[in-house]
């Protein structure tokens, strides 16, 4: 093979591209168009009940995917990081009047600082033991938030945020909140996409795949494991603050319990570990899943002539099926929905281009 | 000695800030006293000096008072039967094991108890006896991890992907492409590492270690489990890395015949003790080697 033709700069740039495949670019444009144009036609129920929580949970799932999917360090504390972000946000904005963009950064930074402490055990332990250590952190963090009087969240008190203004704009309609969440999610997604294909992202994946070999190649475990936990918590913290400012309008401890952490872990397993796209697919799946169950159950009851479906039955069916789905994905498609997309889009791409190039073979885990 | 050199002769660029050993007349290096002049340290200083290393696990002495020197530009082979302590030696040099006693000096400076990533920072790189590639990553990404210590992009550089870090990424990808060309693995450059054959995975691992531009490269049984052709190819790449890139190499091998042709210097271990040290010819005719080593394998 000719040496000169092997690595022209254009090919290297193509290797480095944010979305190297044409089909991913097209899909990204389509998703953006839908995300921008569709919401005005959706009612408040869909915006408040599905779209906004979906976006916010995507941000948090993306963070969790960085530590668990990319760096391979399992964490059950993401819900608690969201709580740290939520209360930091509501105090910074509500009590001290710090502008919202800065407040979001402070909320993320505070969660990252807590994340560094929670992540410290990962230097010595992994797997199941790390899971238990982060589980303990989940409980301790929520306990601290409730017990420190300065925070003002004692005995299940909910702290409301004052009206949300960003650069003079009053964000109180569901549609405005949605676009606000979309902006934040888009910025954080681009940052994560860049990061995961950079030197830092490769160091994380190297730790995930072979930590001994990674350290022999000069990757510092201390630095990159803590960095993964901090970035993960940073995303969680911003997501928590967004719950306050773009969705619920208040911070309350009960929302960030263990259930949320497990749900987030379920999202990235279903969506795809180690995939930015997977974080979104998982969050979308989890947001739409209860609605699909509800519709399906109502239809089944209607056909079988039964009574009206009770809320308890629905909730039980949801939990059962969600658990079953996680097991299903772990066994059948451990790389999640994002891998299904890559297989499907790979075959479409091959059909579209007359000369499929050999360097298009997808890696097992693509960042996007 | 080096069957069919086909390397296209495109020299790898030298990274600024550290001077690799000159691509010298390595085959005739310091053993006979005609060592090439090295730039940073005086001629007499060996690149790596291992002094009286002992390593025990519980009551078992894996290594017992082993000493030897590695000269710049040479290929040193450490051979010995199974359980002789060869891999333990490699793990001590790269910082994965802490020796029970003894001293290791690299470029004249003592560095016995450094962490693995600090050892990597000194310019020591290695491959593993059992494959240790990053399985889910592509060949390019695997080799790019080898560039880790030469890159600077951090959290914000990587996340924002602007100016400096973008340019840096491009330069290092260029370097990786040259490694890929050097090892003749262009056609698998984007393939996930775990889908490759055993022999190719070994070659990619060599590429990852070479990408670090090491001053000292340790290869732990690079030919194990390969067929004859693959062994010949690997020997050629190792010789090329030594001659063309000027890399000092420690070659750990179980199979004595493989290393005799390309080694400048052979150290023989048996039951954790050094039993011979010299040129391949000297070692091959050494009575204790024939007795201990050959006896143990037959």
From TrEMBL, chain A:
Q: Where in the cell is it found?
A: Cell membrane
Q: So where does this one cross the membrane?
A: 26-43, 100-120, 127-145, 178-195, 226-248, 260-277, 284-301, 321-341
Q: How does it sit in the membrane?
A: Multi-pass membrane protein
Q: What is its main location?
A: membrane
Keyword field: Cell membrane, Membrane, Transmembrane, Transmembrane helix
GO annotations of cellular component type: plasma membrane
Give the Gene Ontology MF terms in alphabetical order: branched-chain amino acid transmembrane transporter activity
PANTHER family associated with the record: ABC TRANSPORTER PERMEASE PROTEIN, HIGH-AFFINITY BRANCHED-CHAIN AMINO ACID TRANSPORT SYSTEM PERMEASE
- What's the name of the protein? Amino acid/amide ABC transporter membrane protein 2, HAAT family
Automatic annotation (TrEMBL), chain B:
Organism's domain of life?
Bacteria
Which classification does the entry list for the species? Bacteria, Pseudomonadati, Pseudomonadota, Alphaproteobacteria, Rhodobacterales
Q: Which PROSITE patterns does this UniProt record tie to the protein?
A: ABC_TRANSPORTER_2
Q: Specify the species.
A: Roseovarius lutimaris
Q: Name one GO cellular component term.
A: plasma membrane
UniProt entry keywords in alphabetical sequence = ATP-binding, Nucleotide-binding, Transport
Q: What is this protein called?
A: Amino acid/amide ABC transporter ATP-binding protein 1, HAAT family
A single Pfam family it belongs to is ABC_tran
Which SMART domains does the record cross-reference, listed alphabetically? AAA
CDD domains xrefs: ABC_Mj1267_LivG_branched
Q: Residue ranges of the ABC transporter domain? A: 48-296
For the keyword Nucleotide-binding, the answer is: yes
Give the region (Disordered) as residue ranges: 13-32
Which GO molecular function terms does the record list?
A: ATP binding; ATP hydrolysis activity
